[in-house]
Backbone:
């Protein structure tokens, strides 16, 4: 396939992704235990009536969780793409830097030491724990003569994650109050958060996406090999450093507002790579609406499959993402290490 043909295909996929994203937003605002018509959605957004129950539900519940879904889904998809580029492994996960494990330990600290019991109260603890864990992994992984090597970074992340997971299990097995509060946050979801939480993480996520897009060309060169990229005059260390910073901001922000949701950072970039190729400019750009759509649709499905209750979006994605990922792996039959 020629370069112009690949570009045309990527543009078409981007257009489809944007269309699916817009449809996902409409479904997220209108579908649930209390269906709301499109006309009522428009009325609520542009002329809210405090006495109208549909308007109240839409503005206080569905709008916040839709915005959270957009931010978290886009952030996780972009973070997964960056991690796969940095490690040259299309199955790398944002959790590779210990993000989820660090956030979990920090949330447990908030529960047991400070007494916080609401998801909105976990926000800065989760963000801080995710950031600290990622910084520790990046620092250790960059030491020594082979510092920054993708394999070393992956092994360091796995070791830190294992240690933090052990701490998490120890606390949960000895503090049943913490277990009761923690288990709701740990499955990942978009409920019980407000627009105040969105305001706190919007800037970090936006900055993280901007840094990731800036690194796109560098990730393309790293895919050729560090030595080749250096020979072409590219500063590999700078791209790796910026990529790690972007991952910290994106994963920290997404985990803080939506919990440790898995598979988005794996499935979205891996699926797009099959469709549009390995150009990170397109993988990152298309991944933004695609990741947001996946999380929003998972949330919508979770609202309707167990009425009058709900299934958290993180659980829905786990059920859908696992077989999709296995299928993709079997089709490609290769993982770059």
Residues:
């Amino acid at each position: 396939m020629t370069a112009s043909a690949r570009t045309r295909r990527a543009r078409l996929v981007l257009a489809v992704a944007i269309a699916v994203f817009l449809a996902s937003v409409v479904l997220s605002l209108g579908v649930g235990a209390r269906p709301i018509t499109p006309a009522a959605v428009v009325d609520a957004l542009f002329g809210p009536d405090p006495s109208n129950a549909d308007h109240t539900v839409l503005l206080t519940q569905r709008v916040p969780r839709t915005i959270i879904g957009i931010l978290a889904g886009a952030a996780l998809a972009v973070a997964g793409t960056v991690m796969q580029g940095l490690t040259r492994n299309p199955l790398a996960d944002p959790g590779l830097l210990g993000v989820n494990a660090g956030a979990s330990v920090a949330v447990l600290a908030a529960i047991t030491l400070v007494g916080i019991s609401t998801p909105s109260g976990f926000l800065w603890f989760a963000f801080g724990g995710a950031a600290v864990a990622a910084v520790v992994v990046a620092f250790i992984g960059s030491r020594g003569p082979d510092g920054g090597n993708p394999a070393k970074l992956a092994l360091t992340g796995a070791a830190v994650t294992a240690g933090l997971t052990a701490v998490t299990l120890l606390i949960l097995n000895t503090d049943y109050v913490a277990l009761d509060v923690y288990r709701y946050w740990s499955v990942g979801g978009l409920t019980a958060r407000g627009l105040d939480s969105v305001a706190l993480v919007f800037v970090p996520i936006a900055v993280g996406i901007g840094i990731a897009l800036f690194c796109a060309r560098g990730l393309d060169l790293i895919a050729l090999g560090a030595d080749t990229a250096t020979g072409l005059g590219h500063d590999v260390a700078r791209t790796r450093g910026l990529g790690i910073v972007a991952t910290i901001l994106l994963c920290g922000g997404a985990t803080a507002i939506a919990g440790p949701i898995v598979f988005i950072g794996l499935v979205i970039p891996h699926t797009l790579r099959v469709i549009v190729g390995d150009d990170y400019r397109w993988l990152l750009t298309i991944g933004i609406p695609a990741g947001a759509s996946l999380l929003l649709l998972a949330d919508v499905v979770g609202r309707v499959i167990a009425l009058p209750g709900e299934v958290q979006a993180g659980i829905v994605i786990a059920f859908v993402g696992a077989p999709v990922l296995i299928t993709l792996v079997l089709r490609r039959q290769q993982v770059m290490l």
